[in-house]
Amino acid sequence: MPVKIRLTRQGRKKKPIYHIVIADSRAPRDGKFIERLGLFNPNTNPATIDLNFDKALDWLQKGAQPTDTCRAILSQKGVLMKKHLLEGVKKGAFSIEEANTRFDKWIKEKEAALNAAVSKLQKAKDDEAKKRLENETKIKETIAQEVAKKKAAAAKDEAEEAAPEETPVAEVPQEAVESVEETPAAEDKQEENAEVTEETPAAEDQQVAEKPVEETPAAEDKQEESAKVTEETLAAEDQQVAEKPVEETPAAEVQKEEVAEAEEETPVAEEQPAEAQSKNVAETAEESSETAAEDNSNEEEKKDS
Predict the structure, then answer these.
(1) Which pTM value belongs to this model?
(2) Domain CATH code at residue 7
(3) CA neighbor of 59 nearest in space, from 48, 70, 50
(4) Which domain range does residue 129 map to?
(5) Which of 71, 124, 132, 149 could pair with 66 in a Cys bridge, judged by C-beta atoms 3.0 to 4.6 Å apart?
(6) 94-151 pLDDT, tens per residue?
(7) Cβ 12 vs Cβ 43: under 8 Å
């Protein structure tokens, strides 16, 4: 029965790992095998190959047939090259020492090419990482600039908002200015009221002093009434005297005395209305001054508020 060098699949979904085995060609892919030669992992770059070189060479010399993938793996590891050189030694083309030197030289060249490919891949990876880092730094710088612009705009907006907030304070003084513009008139009115209050007592005193005759009509009426009363009493006394001249004389004298006392009391009655009027004038002046003071206090409270 023919024997093959082939791969059996292991690993997980979309991450396969293959074992290099010696198996019967009639056996299933992942079925029974004769011997395991190594491991092949294609998930890395470059692919990872772990191979038992001597066993692979022995099975090749015995006639095992590798599959295409296994042939590439064996060629990369130098198993096929070693077999070719040993066949040349059997034919007598060169000695075993020459075959070994040629194989060592080939292995060195193969490893140098593989290392160059690995270094190239690593360099490309490093360059890509460097470019990514540069792009990230640029993005960070642009983001920082945008953030700085936003902060500056926000600060500007806050300053603009703060300025309108201060403007109402400037508007309030305008109202205060209007009130202040109005207050001089009020003060002038207050001053005028004060002057009027100051002038009114003097004017009233002058009026009282200048017009005593105008304020005494009631007293004059009383005097006229008292004069009429005296005339009537005199007329009655004359009649009584005419009728009873001796007996009624004392009563007439008493009535005369009462009339004299009434005439003496009339000046007091004339003086009392003037004093009462002066008191009334003083009271009105005090009330006007109190009302002016209250108005001034109310206007000051309005200004303070």
Answers:
(1) 0.45
(2) 3.30.1320.10
(3) 70
(4) 99-205
(5) 71
(6) 899 999 999 999 999 998 998 998 899 889 989 999 999 999 999 999 999 999 999 9
(7) no
DSSP conformational letter for 52: -
Task: Outline where DSSP puts E strands in 31-148.
Answer: 35-41, 48-51, 65-66
Structure tokens of 287? 């009330």
Residue 23: strand, helix, or coil: strand
Q: Which residues of 86-97 are buried (b: 16+ CB within 10 A; e: fewer)?
A: bebeeeeeeeee
Of 38, 71, 93, the position where a domain reaches its end is 93
Query: 71, 93, 115 — which closes off a domain?
Result: 93
- Report how far residue 48's alpha carbon sits from residue 41's, in angstroms, rounded to the nearest whole number: 5
Same domain? For 190 and 104 the reply is yes
For residues 100 and 110, what is the distance between their CA atoms, to the nearest angstrom? 15
Distance from C-alpha of 122 to C-alpha of 53, rounded to nearest angstrom: 28
Q: Are residues 154 and 246 in the same domain?
A: no
